[in-house]
Specification:
The complex is a heterodimer of chains A (about 350) and B (about 80).
Chain A lengths: L15 H10 L13 H8 L9 E5 L4 E4 H11 L6 H11 L6 H6 L5 E7 L2 H5 L13 H16 L22 E3 L10 H4 L7 E8 L3 E4 L5 H12 L5 H5 L5 E4 L1 H9 L5 H11 L2 E2 L23 E2 L9 E4 L7 E5 L8 E5 L2
Parallel strand pairs in A: 3-4, 7-10
Antiparallel strand pairs in A: 1-2, 3-5, 5-12, 6-11, 7-11, 8-9
Helix pairs in contact in A: 2-3, 3-4, 3-7, 4-7, 9-12
Chain B lengths: L8 E4 L3 H10 L7 E4 L2 H4 L4 H19 L10
Parallel strand pairs in B: 1-2
Classes of the chains: A alpha+beta (about 350), B mainly alpha (about 80).
Chain lengths: ~350, ~80
Amino acid sequence: MPVRLASARHDVPDDPEAVFEYALARGWSDGLPLIPPTPERVERMLAATSRGPAEIVARLDPRQGEATVERVAINAVMAGCAPAYLPVVLAAVDAVADPAFNLHGIQTTTNPVGPLLIVNGPIRQRIGLNSGRNALGPGCRANATIGRALRLCLLNIGGGVPGDIDKAILGMPGKYTFCLGENEEESPWEPLHVERGLRPDESAVTAVGAQGTNNLLIISGGAEDALVLTADAMATMGNNNVIVGHGNPVVFFSPGHAREFVEQGFPTKRAVREFLFERSRIPVERFPVREINPARPVRPRAGADGTVAPINAPDDLLIVVAGGPEPYHITYCPSFGETAAVTRRVAG
Amino acid sequence: MKRGIPAVLLVTERFRELAEAIRRSRGMPEAPEVVLPRTEETEYGDKDVMGAIAERALQQVLAIVAPGAGRRAAP
């Protein structure tokens, strides 16, 4: 039986440039060309889920736009998603709408924050999601278009229009797309979704309000040296999560580094977290005399030892194994602060 | 407002378009607002500056919800 679509129809010349110009003029694009969401393409996309097109997945701030399955599917088509990606996009939309994620703040702030999506479980292999070399770089359709589909949903359904509503001072490239898988197969540790309560055979997406990537070159020394340098990156006074004292920053370790840590006394993610929590503390006297944000002063948060931690507790730090195998680079993503990571199971 | 509780939206200058979008999406396009200066002054400014902004905003709010009930100078 054909799917009944509710969305408005637009007659546009059958020409890629005309479609692109038409979408740009209406503010439907992130600035890149779009795949025209013809009824046939949207129907093919919807066939990848058992959910009805009219079902409301979430309401997206700040517009409180109804993200129906159909509207999400349209944006997924425009982003270039294959139909098999739709369950991941639906779970991501649901995740960012959780009040704990603070989508309203993330969509409207002057901060460069954007949703970072970390995918776990068997769906990664089924859709060819990259969790290895260059997982946060170009080249993989699933990574590129799932993140972009969420961005288009935030723009077209949530109303996060750059300039008028999205007040980012500079923004960052991850606001176009920011999606990867955890390299579970090469990780010696428990995967992120299992740490967050799901079974290993389930698939999940975790959304993080992340500010971008900070790379650390670490090609010599042992595990402890690598973690000392990681802690130094975390101890950046101006990061939102330091100033606000909340949020879930993320550290990405390559499989090579993760194995090295296990061999050299850090058998679990927990052991790594505890080390980083202690070593990333910042002496309060290093902060400017005048509070960076007088409304949320850092100084009163200093512990008895006179230091301020970038997170409230070791468990607030997310650790993900991803990337190529060499123990050369570690990536740290600070958090927007006023946001918590949210995990949703991917259906099917 | 819809529940009969007087309300005035306080919004800093930079976020006026956002406030307008939210009012529209909540079905209250005519809801009254008081526009505050930019965040640099309202959140990060000196106490005296913020106090003066707050006093001005209070008078504007009172003028909207209770015309004629603004604070009077001491005799």
